[in-house]
Amino acid sequence: GSPQLETSKDQRLIVVSNRLPVTISKDDKGEYHFKMSSGGLVSALSGCKKTMSFQWIGWPGKDIPMADREIVNKRLLDEYNCVPVYLSDELADRHYNGFSNSILWPLFHYHPGEMNFDAAHWLAYREANMRFAEVVSHMCQSGDMVWVQDYHLMLLPMLLRSMISGESAQGEMVRKELGRVKEGVDDEVVKDVLGMQPGVATPVDGETDEGVEMLDDVEEEGGPLKMKERGGKRPHFPRGLSTFQKQEMVAKEKGKDGIRIGFFLHTPFPSSEIYRVLPVRREILLGVLQCDLIGFHTYDYARHFLSSCTRILGLQTQPNGIEFEGRYAQVGTYPIGIEPMQFVEGLQKEKVQTRLQALENRFKGCKVIIGVDRLDYIKGIPQKLHALEVFLTQHPEWIGKVVLVQLAIPSRQDVEEYQNLRACVNELVGRINGRFGTVEFMPIHYLHKSVPFEELTAMYALADACLVTSTRDGMNLVAYEYISSQSKRHGSMVLSEFAGAAQSLNGSILINPWDVQSTADAIHLALEMGPEQRESNWQKLFSYVSKYTAEAWGVSFVNELTRLSGLPPAGPAG
Ligand code: ADP
Ligand code: G6P
């Protein structure tokens, strides 16, 4: 049966992610367009909606002038149950293209060479996280659950905790921030990024920080957070309370106690040897340690996170979590999935069947290999193309008998590395098609665009094999989607061992994408595998994919979060 939520009816869930399920853009005529977003995070969370109701807070992809916000907000709320966090285009650029996608993304995927650390981007990251925290803290009440998603928002748990337990003046945070940015950021940049003068406090929503103690920064490596004494009437805490208990006392007065915060990382968490390259490695870890539950796709990512906490913060960890400031952050493995029935049922639709038949006619007598990736350097697209080239060179009898249909979904096009990749892939496709192609036949059909769901489903169903060659990938849901669309053909799944999915998709042909020869051999094996073997592989794969669904992922995470109290588990801890 379906996984069941154990939360009570009145317990509210708020999901926060940078990307909303819908992205807004504005055309030349000034009209707004709402487009379905792509990526594994949106696919999985959308798949949870049937079982779990939640309000979804995130960035709509575009700043909207004040005059238009009311109408846009209404549409977001009514049609998608979403609440926007607006960021100026400049701040969003530095937060999204800058810190998130030019620093954290490459680093978490073992590309430290691509990482460009820039203090202004860090400042913007912190600022954008603060804007999110303001919206969330405004919305949440005692007992709510807040589930924060992914690497764009790793400071949000800490900022939210300090906001709901007293810290309220944004200016104070900014001043502190300026004090710690290591390379000097000049006042002009600060004004640009924050739209304010450095050092000028701007209280939020008329709140003042009078009467509450606030969290101060960590003073030394591994040192404790301090409660700073401030002017005004301070609450009297009984002796011996932990920071966690004090936070809860202050939050209670504001009607915001017992708020559980969860965090899930959709990317890998790298080995501490890579992670420690990050100049703000401590701040990022401290940002998520204010959670009650921290989840990863695989056991390895969770282990890397815990060992980073030990090595970088000097904290003692337990196998399933870590005590910090009196709060226990449980750490666990929650492998994400998809909604397989969406593909199984999608395939029955007339439109998809018609399209499938047309494609089958088009590729008659030819085997089809499918690749579906955001055009991202972690997806190993050049490695995939090289492997195909080697395969065709070594097996010329397959020339004209196999095509690779590679869909490359445009992604993060303002980031330089993505522009370089685009040029590199274009060139490779041109060269390989030039080498093996004829007027009648091209070995690679390359589409750099987003395709509609029906087309995607038909392509998955058409293909005799799917090729995922990521050099690192949090999970990779494309593999799950292909398997779900193969109940008839039982095509082969060729899967990189560097994708999180390799830990679970037993029945795939695993490859090391850096080893071009063995990838070429795997293509050969996939194409020549007999029907019995393919069917038995597919049975194993599909039974996993239909059990570990997006829904199962969401429900198990939220159920666990419901059970936690922030207190360390019974028995000797920390
Ligand atoms: P990532 O999250 O890195 O993009 P995944 O493989 O986990 O990689 O997820 C990609 C997701 O994007 C899949 O669920 C896939 O169906 C979805 N997708 C692919 N093409 C489109 C598209 N044109 N529009 C919307 N979503 C798409
Ligand atoms: C990955 C990330 C997600 C992101 C998605 C699409 O799956 O983990 O957080 O939403 O890629 O990327 P984008 O930059 O368009 O949000």
TrEMBL record:
Q: Name one Pfam family in it.
A: Glyco_transf_20
The residues that cross the membrane are none
InterPro entries assigned: Glyco_trans_20
Q: Gene3D superfamilies attached here?
A: Glycogen Phosphorylase B (3.40.50.2000)
Q: What is this protein called?
A: Alpha,alpha-trehalose-phosphate synthase [UDP-forming] 1
